[in-house]
Amino acid sequence: xxxxxxxxxxxxxxxxxxxxxxxxxxxxxxxxxxxxxxxxxxxxxxxxxxxxxxxxxxxxxxxxxxxxxxxxxxxxxxxxxxxxxxxxxxxxxxxxxxxxxxxxxxxxxxxxxxxxxxxxxxxxxxxxxxxxxxxxxxxxxxxxxxxxxxxxxxxxxxxxxxxxxxxxxxxxxxxxxxxxxxxxxxxxxxxxxxxxxxxxxxxxxxxxxxxxxxxxx
Amino acid sequence: xxxxxxxxxxxxxxxxxxxxxxxxxxxxxxxxxxxxxxxxxxxxxxxxxxxxxxxxxxxxxxxxxxxxxxxxxxxxxxxxxxxxxxxxxxxxxxxxxxxxxxxxxxxxxxxxxxxxxxxxxxxxxxxxxxxxxxxxxxxxxxxxxxxxxxxxxxxxxxxxxxxxxxxxxxxxxxxxxxxxxxxxxxxxxxxxxxxxxxxxxxxxxxxxxxxxxxxxx
DNA sequence: GTCTATACTACGATAGAC
DNA sequence: GTCTATCGTAGTATAGAC
Lengths: 217, 217
Description:
Two copies of one chain form a homodimer.
Chain A: H1 9-25, H2 32-38, H3 46-49, H4 53-76, H5 82-99, H6 103-112, H7 126-148, H8 157-173, H9 175-182, H10 189-206
The structure holds a DNA duplex.
């Protein structure tokens, strides 16, 4: 093992620093000098670990998405009924967003900022797009399953996916604004529990099919 | 009249161009040269209309927010019951986001990107914060009213505000991703109508109090 | 693998002619 | 009100010493 670890510590540290900075200020707002020096390196040493700025950025994004995918995959694969499975996915998603500060913002940026870093599609963006597509696909299928089985109302699953992203990713990305709105830190254990409860209650009432009703109603 | 219009056209054009560019690439991702030349001016002429980059940015943001505020104020002030009033606000909000492309992204950025353009709080950011605070305050009070009158479930109004922002602002800010997910343009009249219907249905089932139940249940 | 030094470009902003 | 010219800084990236 370890046949692929050039210097081990520095690369990880660059990814950590890059994750924090890119999350806060976005791709264009971050200078490589700041990244390198925050990691305890000189500016030029960064280029020994990453070919350029975009490569660093997508390496950071891919690590965040990989973490999320690893965490959520088993929850999607559980044998529970769709509604219970969705509850588990929501809890797991919120947990990962909270455990790794910055990942919510980084993910939100990846979703709404069109990757217009370069004119032509970048090959290094492909792995990240693959993971996002897989995650969204699983969520969409879970919702579709619930609708097919009659446990959920017949909603538009893509629109519900968007609503769920907004309710989770956006919420935990909304730093100072969200904190001012709630009156206490977004990631405090109390507000995290509250967020989970509020969202799951909204879905329980709003997504679950409202029991069996006679068609004449 | 007209005592305050120096050149009229250029300033408006700069705001238009700035709105499009800042929405797409964020504050740091936009160069003043591109803004000026896209407006048909030289780079230096821009400084005749705006003192600097931050002033241009907040002028753009303020215009967007002002537009939104003017549109939504009467909807918030309507005499309808809270649930119907909320429906109207949602329709109006989505309409403004759709009519002015870029405003969703610009607003989303303003909400989740902490204004870390400068170390100290900028005086030119204050008007925008005032409008946002007013809008959010009205929405929060509308929800609180509905809860107090028993028309809504006893939800956390700040959390519901966040959910609504995510369901509207984020959705229409999610350009290529959202379009790929839905399979057709976000702002097509069909998808806009669908978005309104899906969201209002979710709220109708998930936010409205589920009829009167005996307390012993 | 990290450093100093450097090339080249673009940035925000200012000065002054017209 | 717009222009050309310029300043100072910081950006990404490369070359080469250690």
